[in-house]
Specification:
299 residues; alpha/beta; Spore Coat Polysaccharide Biosynthesis Protein SpsA, Chain A; two-stranded antiparallel sheet; 34% helix; 14% strand; globular
């Protein structure tokens, strides 16, 4: 006989597999749709006055440039339009941006040259500092987003203005015997149980996460510390900054949890190194020692 806990875990595994099958079947259709979508069909940005601006922020690099326009097209088709879509690009990688991306500027996309190559941290680092009063939604450059991304995240933000609202979260876990934090790969992957703000949740910003204005501490923008301690893992860096400022994370339910992936980009994913080579655990240890923050205390 199965225990209740075993049945729950089995159901979770089945659901995760079904989501992956669904993604596998649907992703090619989405890619084709946005690839062929005429530019005249893009709805663009918000043109009505808003008390608080909503900015969608992302970054990219040359290996992803060929499919980047597909991702941005999906962001230009939102049911709730953002006030700006800002693409932060390292200045030495500006010259090879393809025309397919450049022509999206006429629909409101801003390409922001930046002077430091902070890798994935570029998706939030410059925009949050330049627009401190805006709600900033971070996304990745290798995903296709559904039309309600902005609307869902903003709705959650208005309900929980003191938390980071994220479409995809992992649950931090600790060993019940030793009390030590478990390896990153043993955390609760794409956790779906906790529906209220929690310090035990890690937001994966690439799937879509909204950061309210004035919520993160000044240390978030310590470039030297980022490069020394956690250059390739922005999600983990931001988690420590959130804990430092006592900011929880709330999951925003959506199916499927993970946006559709542009298959041509999967070989360059940082997640392969961070998860496959356990590099995330190195970053967590370094940040814990440097900031004296033990994630196990929050789960």
């Amino acid at each position: 006989m199965y225990t209740r806990q075993q049945i729950i875990k089995l159901c979770q595994r089945i659901r995760t597999k079904l989501e992956r099958i669904y993604n596998y079947l649907v992703e090619p259709l989405y890619c084709t749709y946005y690839d062929k979508l005429p530019l005249c069909k893009l709805t663009g940005l918000n043109t009505n006055p808003r008390k608080e601006k909503i900015i969608v922020s992302l970054t990219s690099y040359p290996a992803r440039y060929d499919t980047l326009y597909i991702c941005i097209k999906s962001l230009l088709r939102q049911s709730m339009k953002p006030d700006n879509i800002i693409l932060s690009i390292y200045i030495n990688e500006m010259d090879c941006i393809p025309q397919s991306v450049l022509e999206l500027q006429k629909y409101g996309v801003t390409i922001l040259p930046v002077d430091e190559n902070l890798k994935p941290h570029k998706k939030y680092y410059y925009v949050m500092q330049q627009y401190p009063d805006a709600a900033v939604i971070t996304v990745d450059d290798d995903l296709i987003y559904d039309k309600n991304l902005v609307k869902d995240l903003y709705k959650s933000y208005k309900k929980y203005p003191y938390a980071v609202s994220a479409r995809r979260v992992h649950k931090i876990k600790k060993d019940p015997v030793t009390g030590l934090i478990k390896p990153y790969n043993d955390w609760g992957y794409e956790h779906k149980k906790i529906r209220t703000p929690s310090f035990a949740l890690l937001a994966t910003g690439g799937a879509g996460a909204l950061y309210p204005p004035h919520l993160l501490p000044k240390e978030t923008f310590n470039s030297a510390a980022i490069q020394k301690l956690c250059l390739n893992a922005d999600d983990i860096w931001l988690k420590f900054m959130e804990q430092k400022a006592h900011v929880p994370v709330v999951w925003v339910p959506h199916f499927p949890v993970h946006p559709y992936t542009l298959q041509a980009t999967t070989t360059q994913a940082l997640s392969k190194e961070n998860c496959g080579n356990n590099q995330n655990d190195v970053y967590i240890r370094q940040l814990s020692e440097f900031y004296h923050i033990n994630l196990a205390d929050y789960c």
